[in-house]
Amino acid sequence: MKTKVAIAIAAALMSASCAMTEAPSAAPQTTPPAVLATAENSQAIAGQELTLKQIMSDQDWVARSPTNAYWMLDGSGVLYQQKREGSQISDWFHQPLDKEAHQVPLEKLHNYAYNDGVYNADKSMLAYTFEGNIFVRDLSNNETRQLTRDEARQSQLVFLTSGELAYRQGNDFFSVNPRTGLTKQIAALALRKAPTANSEPKDFVAREQQQLIEFVQVERKNKADRFAQQQQLQANNASLAPEPFYLGEGKQIVATSLSPAGDKLIVAISAPQKWREDGDIMPNYVTEDGRVAAEPVRSRVADAKPVEHEILVLDLESGEQTTLTYNTLPGWNEDVLAEVHRENYAAEGKTYKSEKKPRPITLMQDWGWQAGAIRWTDDGKQVALMLEAWDNKDRWIASVDFAGKRLVSQDRLHDNAWINYTHNEFGFLPNSSTLWFQSEADGYSHLYVKPLNGKTKQLTQGKFVVEDPAISSNGEFIYFSANKPHPGNYEIYRVRTDNGALEQLTKLGGINNYELSPQEDRLLVKHSTALQPEELYVQVIGSDTATRLTHTATEQFMSFDWVAPEIVPVPSSHVADPIYTRVYYPQDYDPNRAEKYPAVVFIHGAGYLQNAHAGWSGYQREFMFHTFLTQQGYVVLDLDYRGSKGYGRDWRTAIYRQMGTPEVEDLVDVVKWAGENTNVDTNRMGTYGGSYGGFLTFMALFKEPGLFKAGSALRPVSDWAHYNTGYTSNILNLPDNDPIAYRRSSPIYFTEGLEDALLINSPMVDDNVFFQDSVRLVQRLIEHEKEDFETAIFPVEPHGFRQPSSWLDEYRRIFKLFEENLK
């Protein structure tokens, strides 16, 4: 029989070389985190029984883990948010390193909201916004000064090389002296044509009127004189606000970035973009007034049209406005979809003729960014932009030759599938014109540096993924987390930017995220294991111990005897790399038992997400449900199928133009492995998953009948043409360009294959995966005269359920499905 401690250690992939300690206010604790979880479990409360109602109840009973944690400016402690018990509201707490935590009073909160603040050149001042207003902290005397207090929202703070603080308010830019408070406007953007004294006559009648009528002529002359005088005043009187930059009609501003030198402004504009059409609605049947509400929702990828951004350089000193063209970027006019078009044309009996033509190009949109796609050097003399092609096949980092008025390509990342929508961090090293950036050029997200006029140098390499890079203040190091020890174990590292020397800073096991202290001598580590929700630890850089700061998991949660999963590299019959899978065994598991075990396979959502790791799962209810299932005699498996995060570019892009094909192949391999290695009866296996997991439940049941005797699809995608553009067009291109990919990848085209029991669980006010997805698929099943399927609807739930009663109803149905079909 497997002991729980052994399984926990396997799950957490521990390294015993780094110990954990409790905060000074608590008893010392040197137990590694995986074992720590089981040690705390040893305090089990007699008679505790795990039930579905307990699992699906308000999750305050599990833990109210700290969120949004960051350092105090002096490094003496940390700040974090914690959900208020029994409420959706979160409160802020200050946790000193040597004392108990205390709540930050609301009247003082503005003094601590500096997490995203910006420093001036000598780091004597820090500026930040709180509730849309600007504050400046003088670090020499630790005094905070409020610079604005109004209904307007200030943003995009940047300290100029002059010492002034610049910010954006609407489409206007201002600078303020942080000591005197004197404010002046430095730029204004106007989405209209430049004004003129008199408009030209628009037709014959107007021309004749102006020639015949003396009064009209006099009026036009007077207007011209007044206009000329105002223009001269604007040009010669420095007390006036600068004249706006007129960007033209029928445009929208996408992004702006002001140079720290205060002399240039980069602006991206496009044609107006609508996120929906009038017909994009979702009925809401349960409302306060008892009527049906037509809720607005996003448009579908099937309705998407290409978008292009126009990049402008605005010279704030001369008033000159320059448009940068993309024709200096390598591949800017390549027909990268030629093979896709040929296949789709051939399917219709047509011949496709390839030709070069400009591709729509935009600023890069990374899902995790805060700083945006335009980055300046500290002195404001150089700028770099990250650009992407609308077809998702290219990403460029380009600098701007201001004298030559052109883009200069510094790096091109091409992918025949699609450029990742994460792992795109970049910028300049401090006080340098050397770029640093992430790239999947060698197949994994790694770090690179490149002088603007020099060669690219790769800093990290290997079969692991670099996450969350942060640059030291002197540019000597780049800090990051990475799954170098094992795909499921993320530790903290730093790499030298001059020679690529790599140093591992933590060896805690599990999953670790971090915040570097302002003094750069400590790490605030956000640590979790398979059995422990995320908690805060502090580790001195160079030390081999970490001190625990928070204890938010409840005694009730820790009292249950949770089953920690093993992480198993299941061999793939299709690719060289294994399919990493969490395996949960019953506590009395007997590999030689005469009666084989029934089993359930969980399929995680999001597609690009990692769940077979050694940390706390974002699917915490499912994690607890899996322990519940083992108590009922099931083996549970949870795989990171191809397309999942954490395993590199090839694993990510295996689903290109064929969503649901490699993933189902991986499901087949996992089922086969379970039958051969875990004493599981492959004739008594079920599956379930939500969102992308619901989609794959459909595909498994429709395309591989008999693989599972029963499956439950939660909030499932049934037709990718109805999903959003940002996600879907990466993987399947656009429906008009690649209908084959959509028909190959959408379950609604394979409904005739259903032979096994199916439960569809669909929230009705889901603005992510529309309820219509389930409605249309059910109609197809009815038309195929299928019998063994059921549909459960949840009238008040969005994509992520909110009501414990809905969670309970859903999982009772799922459990009943398995009990009736697998036992």
TrEMBL record:
- Does the keyword Ion transport feature in the UniProt annotation? no
Keyword Zinc belongs to the record: no
Q: Which residues form the Dipeptidylpeptidase IV N-terminal domain?
A: 374-533
Which keywords fit this entry according to its UniProt record? Aminopeptidase, Hydrolase, Protease, Signal
Recorded GO molecular functions are:
aminopeptidase activity; dipeptidyl-peptidase activity; serine-type peptidase activity
Signal peptide residues are 1-21
Q: Name one GO biological process term.
A: proteolysis
Record domain Peptidase S9 prolyl oligopeptidase catalytic: where: 628-823
PANTHER family given in the database record = DIPEPTIDYL PEPTIDASE 9, PROTEASE FAMILY S9B,C DIPEPTIDYL-PEPTIDASE IV-RELATED
Q: What is this protein called?
A: Dipeptidyl aminopeptidase/acylaminoacyl peptidase
> From what organism does this protein derive?
Pseudidiomarina maritima
Q: What is the lineage of its organism?
A: Bacteria, Pseudomonadati, Pseudomonadota, Gammaproteobacteria, Alteromonadales
